[in-house]
Design goal:
It is built from 13 helices and 18 strands. By secondary structure, it is α/β, with parallel strands linked by helices. The chain is globular, with a radius of gyration of 24 Å.
Length: 492
């Protein structure tokens, strides 16, 4: 080989070897700086139940600061539920990245978000409400403290268990208010974490889920100044949506009395205010340990709640107040005090966390990475969004319009969310909107096909939509403390 050819070969090979070396070094550096993930997840918290979200009637200073220091998605939704305990499928979707009809409630055979991170080198820790069976918690977390496997309980009597070395132990009844119990566990975990190993900490509150029994210290803020009624308050829902007398709906009598709703709303807000103070403890621990600069904090809730809106109390409906949740991302590389109106699902969080942690998205995940939105690469991830509840309700919305279909009574509602965000004016009978309704029904059917929802949208033998629940007798469930039973049940 001539000297010239040897020289040419060196020139050709050197850039290639250099690139290979640089690529490997960059990959190693990328892996070394993977951020911690702290996921704070509340229970039954409406999207508007935050001071930072233009609600002057609730005190949430720590969550407000989180929103100001991070990026908010103002149209984040739970897709819906196959049964009354909406919390369970919402958490199944969140932790699987899959849509409602594609995920088992026990997460069997599914790679969960914490399980994936554990496999990729993260220490994973869980505390609080899981609600998707013990086996899936066991495979998902390296350890857990004060984990609650059920759906609801008295907040002063939460049955919890610990996970250590892959086995459950120390089954007991919690001795503190639920939010304090779970935050104690999270703080203790954060205090023991080495700075050189990334962690995923999942803190799932049971607040503000009922029983709405806030500690007296939190209730003081609202005792003499109850929040105003929701703009869309009604004494009764105007028609039978198929879920009018379930457990959640029986927490107050019919017709709804304005002062009773305001009282329960005050208790609901106080639960959130107390939870917010506990969130402050976690964030303070992050900062004191020097972990805040390399930790992504995510805050959300499994869905919303009516609390008097549309004459309802629960989450078993498809109005905005019940299917929307707050959603905030805060941390390195994420813009501060910015927001998006993109239509997103809670199960989009899974692939977004994969992006943030440089982890490959597993097969079966249907959610869409949201990070390109705050990076300015796109302004949306979907043009429409589909929600569903049992065989009773189906809904679809776009940037402005929302259609709800009730198959059992052959009823349709249409709302202009731009001009009527409280969903008070049904435009389904307006002659100018009939073409829009047909187009949206077509979109709804496309969503059904995409998500394997088999529910017909029309009934051959529709039920009556007429209903009057005035004076209907109610019974409290076993979790309600005596003072709530006396206040809201025995007084009737």
């Amino acid at each position: 080989m001539t000297t010239y050819l040897r020289y040419l070969l060196i020139l050709l090979c050197f850039p290639l070897s250099s690139l290979i070396y640089q690529s490997a070094a960059q990959a190693e550096q990328k892996s070394a700086v993977r951020p911690n993930i702290l996921f704070l997840f509340s229970d039954d918290q409406r999207a508007d139940a935050l001071g930072a979200y233009q609600n002057p009637n609730i005190q949430t200073p720590n969550l407000d600061q989180l929103a100001k220091a991070g990026f908010s998605f103002r149209n984040a939704y739970c897709m819906g539920s196959i049964h009354g305990a909406v919390c369970q499928p919402s958490r199944a979707m969140l932790n699987s990245g899959r849509s409602l009809y594609h995920v088992p409630m026990d997460l069997k055979g599914v790679t969960t978000m914490p399980q994936l991170l554990k496999q990729s080198g993260y220490t994973t820790f869980g505390t609080g409400k899981w609600h998707n069976h013990r086996d899936s918690f066991q495979k998902s977390f390296t350890s857990g403290t004060a984990a609650f496997m059920g759906g609801m309980s008295n907040h002063l009597k939460v049955p919890v268990v610990d996970l250590k070395h892959g086995k459950f132990e120390n089954q007991r009844m919690g001795e503190k208010f639920s939010s304090e119990l779970f935050v104690d566990a999270a703080v203790n975990f954060l205090k023991t974490q080495p700075a050189d190993k990334p962690f995923y900490a999942y803190v799932a509150f049971t607040a503000p889920h009922d029983p709405r029994m806030p500690p007296p210290s939190a209730m003081k803020v609202y005792e003499k100044n109850h929040p105003p009624l929701p703009k869309n308050f009604m004494p009764q829902h105007p028609f039978n949506n198929g879920w009018m007398t379930g457990r959640d709906e029986a927490l107050a009598g019919w017709p709804r009395q304005p002062e009773v709703v305001r009282e329960q709303l005050a208790e609901y807000y106080a639960m959130i205010t107390h939870m917010d103070s506990q969130v402050g403890r976690i964030l303070g621990t992050l900062k004191s340990r020097g972990l805040d600069n390399n930790t992504i904090v995510i805050f959300s809730s499994d869905h919303g709640l009516a609390i008097g809106s549309h004459g309802l109390l629960g989450k078993q409906n498809l109005y905005e107040h019940s299917m929307k949740s707050p959603l905030i991302f805060k941390g390195p590389g994420i813009p501060q005090n910015e927001s998006s109106n993109a239509l997103v699902y809670l199960y989009d969080i899974f692939p977004t966390v994969c992006d943030l942690t440089h982890t490959s998205v597993p097969a079966g995940v249907e959610g869409i990475d949201l990070a390109p939105i705050w990076r300015g690469k796109q302004d949306r991830v979907r043009d429409s969004l589909f929600t569903t509840y049992e065989d009773l309700m189906r809904a679809v919305r776009d940037d402005r319009w929302k259609l709800i279909r009730y198959p059992q009574i052959n009823k349709t509602q249409l709302f202009d969310l731009k001009n009527d965000p409280a969903e008070l004016k049904d435009l389904s009978k307006h002659p100018d909107q009939q073409a829009r309704i047909q187009n949206m029904l077509m979109t709804l059917k496309q969503w059904q096909q995409k998500t394997d929802d088999k529910q017909p949208l029309t009934s051959e033998h529709p039920k009556s939509e007429k209903i009057d629940l005035t004076g209907r007798k109610r019974k409290p469930d076993k979790h309600q403390p005596d003072w709530i039973v006396k206040k809201y049940f025995d007084s009737e």
